[in-house]
Amino acid sequence: MNEAEAAQLQAVWDGYLDSLKAAGAQLFRATTPSDPLTGAEGIRHLSRLTRMGLLSAVEFSDPEFPVLARYVDEVSKFGCDNPDTIYQRAVLNPARRYRVTGKRNTVDYLSFITAKRDAQGYTHQVGHLDSTALKVDADGRFEILLGGEPTGGNWLPMDAETQSVNVRQTYLDRTRETPAELKVERLDDAGTPPVLTLEKIKAQLAAAAGFTTYCASTFTNWTEGYLAHPNALPPADQDACLKAGGDPNIYFYRSFWTLAPDEALVVRIARIPSCDTWNLQVDNYWQESMDYRHHKSHVNKHTAQADADGGVTVVIAHQDPGHRNWLDTAGHRLGHFAMRWIRAAEHVDPTTRVVKFSELREGI
Q1: What is the C-alpha to C-alpha distance for residues 117 and 263, in angstroms, rounded to an integer?
Q2: Same domain, 152 and 234
Q3: Do 154 and 33 sit in the same domain of this protein?
Q4: pLDDT per residue over 36-89, tens digit each?
Q5: Does the global pTM surpass 0.85?
């Protein structure tokens, strides 16, 4: 490598690092809470978004050799990730045809969406298939064709702008259910991947930085928008949720919570309609789910205990009040929280009230 080539390589890397500064700026807004925990988690949040950007734009970005990659897990979180859900995504080329093969197993809810993004970064659904319509053989195996014309089996359309297939696997009980085993492949022989070029890695790093900056900005903007109704849980902008890659079967409620050390937030769902599932979760300010490996930070249709009248009461508090549906704030004094209905017969709006912790204990 000569001196000019070395300088060009250095410029590519330096350009990537410089482009991340715009994402970092999202951590230092005038509206950002000043407590040390939120600040420390903001830095970690940015590191997680950087890792996800590199995975999506560098490691798993080739539609000629697609991989159903998992970007969100126990330590990579963003955008109000559901603790009950496995999220997977594969990049597609609309000029190709693909096949997803798998074994259904026992995970409660499974959905597939072919999607595209517009110039503003919004996601638009092209096709949708979920576990209610998925055709599975006696052994639980299936295949889904992507693109081309429908053949009578499982099929998802692709249009001229389709860019990905997105998968959600949602548990009722992680300890008992087995996720689906999935694989995606091109229907024609792709050969072997070409060697990496400087121009290609430059473009990939630019896309990675764009992902990181977009996510850091978008979800922080959303949290700021919820500051107008703290401790309430109104319906979210459903269209905005879909444009961010949401599932059309999911109806969202999203907001901001803040509690003094001696306060608790009581969330009441008056009745539970027929539904695939529902869940309620407490997140940090950056819309990351809490560390659900070590804190009880969410409940769902399976784990929540009902009230005598069939409704459900959930208590968000800094310490355990002895309530059957307590959600732990995990040392946070504020954050984001959300509720989902998945394919519900109706959307029953939750109500909320802030009470003194001592009053709550007296009421149990």
Answers
A1: 42
A2: no
A3: yes
A4: 999 999 999 999 999 999 999 999 999 999 999 999 999 999 999 999 999 999
A5: yes
